[in-house]
Amino acid sequence: MVTNMKSLEELKAIREKMQSQIGLRAEGDTQTRVVVGMATCGIASGARPVLTAFSTLVQEKNLTDKVSVTQTGCIGLCQYEPIVEVMEPGKEKVTYIKMDAEKVAEVVERHLIGGHVVEAYTLNSVDIK
Fold first, then answer.
1. Does the structure show a pLDDT above 60 at 28?
2. How confident is the model at residue 6 (pLDDT cuts 50, 70, 90)?
3. Roughly how many angstroms between the first and final C-alpha of the chain, as a whole number?
4. Which residues have a Cβ under 8 Å from the Cβ of 125 and sit 6 or more positions away?
5. How far apart are CA 66 and CA 129, in angstroms?
6. CA distances from 61 to 14, 55, 66, 71, 84 (A)
7. Among candidates 73, 79, 75, 36, which has minimal Cα distance to 55?
8. Could you tell me if 81 and 49 are in contact, meaning their C-beta atoms sit under 8 angstroms apart?
9. H-type alpha helices, the chain
10. Is the CB of residue 112 less than 8 Å from the CB of residue 67?
11. ∠74-35-18 over CA atoms, to 5°?
12. Comparing C-alpha atoms, which of 92, 91, 89, 47 is closest to residue 70?
């Protein structure tokens, strides 16, 4: 008799852990991640066109081998939606706030292609009290 039988919950947990590791390896340490907050507050504030603009521009500019565009749930800063986080290997995360399609175009050109953070659109540009 086998005594090491796993419960369904344990198997699901193992599966999720392994899939997340595979996903991280697939993206690699050289790929920039652009993550758009798509919780209810983000969608209500216009996150869907922001996600679409990033996806379209990354494809049009042939950046798909260097940049992945994904979505996430609540980032926790509803008053600053739509929010976009840019995570580059070896660098601090950059959080862009109150994004729209025009700002996306500038962030793609200046940050993703040119390597310069667009400070005026970042969370750091706001005086948080």
1. no
2. low
3. 62
4. 119
5. 36
6. 38, 10, 11, 20, 19
7. 36
8. no
9. 8-27, 40-45, 47-60, 101-107
10. yes
11. 90
12. 47
Cα dihedral 10, 13, 15, 21, rounded to 10, equals: -140
Report the alpha-carbon distance of residue 56 to residue 60 in Å, rounded.
6
Q: Which two tokens stand for residue 105?
A: 């175009």
Closest CA to 85 of 26, 34, 14: 34
| N residues, the chain | 129
* Full-model pTM: 0.75
Q: How far is the C-alpha of 42 from the C-alpha of 31, rounded, in Å?
A: 25
